Amino acid sequence: MKRNVVIGFLGTNLDAGKRRRWRPSVQINDHPDLPIDRLELIHDRRWTGLATKIRAEVRDRNPQTEVLLHQIDISNPWDFEEMYGAMFDFARDYGFDEEREDYHVHLTTGTHVAQICWFLLTEARHIPAKLVQTGPPRGEDPGPGTLQIVDLDLSKYNALQQRFDLVTKEYNTLLKGGINTRNAAFNAMIDRVEVVTSNSDAPLLLMGPTGAGKSDLAERVYELKLQRRRIKGRLVHVNCSTLKGERAMSTLFGHRRQAIPGAGADRRGLLQEADGGVLFLDEIDELGLDEQAMILHAIETGKYFPLGSDYEVTSRFHLIAGAGKNLAEMVADQRFRADLFARLNLWTFKLPALRDRPEDIAPNIAFELDRMEKLLGSRIAFNADAQAAYHKFATDPGTHWPGNFRDLSASIQRMCTLAPRGRITHTMVTSEIETLKTTWHQASNDPDMQILTTYIGEAAARIDEFDRVQLAAVIRVCRESASLSAAGRRLFAASRAAKESRNDADRLRKYLAKFGLDWGSCQI
């Protein structure tokens, strides 16, 4: 049978017995429910006399109880740092023998700071003990008073564990946007995201193809961090594919007005806006190497220099990065900094494409229908034959869904908007399937769209066809030219010959900037 050991501070007021006869360090030994084999009393040098007196009285009343005194001198028992350090050293040097002894920490004596330290050390298992709280007897009761034992091993409390499980389930539901996903790999990833988000402030890297849900997940991670009180600030979403050329630095890090010709005022920058919150750098693989270097410095130090400033600005934020390209391959090609990749790669989560989650298509369709009901103000539903036809098409291995969940969402929205009397018919589904196939075929066979998608990603779909043809031609010339000036001379040869063009390079630079591009980005 294990021996019971109680550890506690000497009560310099209560144990002295000046105001009442109940003395916690003495009476705790009289409880029949907790026979004590050894009492460990911690005291300051100034109270050695009282500690010796209490030891003698316990021995007289309870000969079976061994009393050991530990002198720990603390100059200020209300100083948390000093108190915790002294108690931590005591616990580290104690030599607990859990196979032969059960340990209990007596919380009744000592300052409130000491009680907090006992709890922290016990909860962290630096002291493998249960907590004991005693109190004086009530009224004229001559007994030893009250005694309550608290075991901090929460796994033993079924009701508490069920509550923890329920909270974890709620957090998972939040991260999944309320969608009852069924894909095992995706659900396992969400479980891991929840644990990391709740316990770590390190950067998160979300990998996956366009439309796989990186932005949505980043927003939900932000909401979870907000609920867990890990942050207080806002979410700042930055699409790095739009940060090209000279304005990238200013947008991210801000500037002093004298640094930018024509600037009317200082600019804070998006990193400053994210102070205290979350900075989501979507498409971080599109950032230039200089911007990557400054981002790394800001992550590691929380400081950076705005353009034109001699003084660093402080901004503490949690970072979420999104990338559609393989960053490891980009590092090998020297298009992405290895040190920044190493910093981001601590927690990497790969979001699968929609075609790799066929079992999640049905719950996502249901989610989109609910969303459209709120948007349109009326309930929309599939006819039975229409639902079967659409589900068969959507889950067919030959349906690639190049836009992933964006394609699915747009498809449902089109059918809901056109649905007569709130019903999606088989004819509508057939027409929608043809629309999707035609759109995907045109995108895959349109050389202009292909080249624009390569350089500006999903933003290509938002460019008018008139501009699309012209921009694709300009990019091709840039790729074939040796310099910005050479490309400008070729593109504006006619106006140059008519002496209508004075600075071809500047003209080309301004044109590319309209679409978030510069000369360097067109050389990749």
Using the CA coordinates, give the radius of gyration. 34 Å
Q: Helix share of residues? A: 40-55%
The main β sheet shows up as: 6 strands, mixed
| Mean of all residue-level pLDDT scores | 87
Categorize the overall geometry: elongated
- Terminal CA distance reads 74 Å
Structural class: alpha/beta
Task: List the uncertain runs.
Answer: none
- DSSP strand tally: 15
Strand arrangement within the widest β-sheet reads 3-2-1-4-5-6
Q: What is the count of DSSP helices, taking H or I runs of 4+ residues?
A: 21
Task: Estimate the strand proportion.
Answer: 5-15%
What does this structure look like?
This protein is of the alpha/beta class. Helix content is 46%, strand content 13%. The protein is built from 21 helices and 15 strands. It has helices spanning 24-27, 48-61, 80-94, 112-123, 158-175, 184-199, 214-227, 247-253, 270-273, 289-301, 327-332, 338-344, 361-376, 384-395, 405-418, 426-445, 447-456, 465-480, 484-491, 493-497, 504-513; strands spanning 3-9, 38-43, 66-71, 101-106, 129-135, 146-150, 204-207, 235-239, 278-282, 303-304, 313-314, 318-323, 347-350, 381-382, 423-424. The chain has a six-stranded mixed beta sheet with strand order 3-2-1-4-5-6, with helices on both faces. The protein has a five-stranded parallel beta sheet with strand order 8-9-12-7-13. Helix 2 (48-61) links the parallel strand 2 and strand 3 (66-71). Helix 13 (361-376) packs across helix 15 (405-418), helix 17 crosses helix 18 and helix 18 packs across helix 19. The radius of gyration is 34 Å and the shape is elongated. The relative contact order is 0.07. The mean pLDDT is 87.
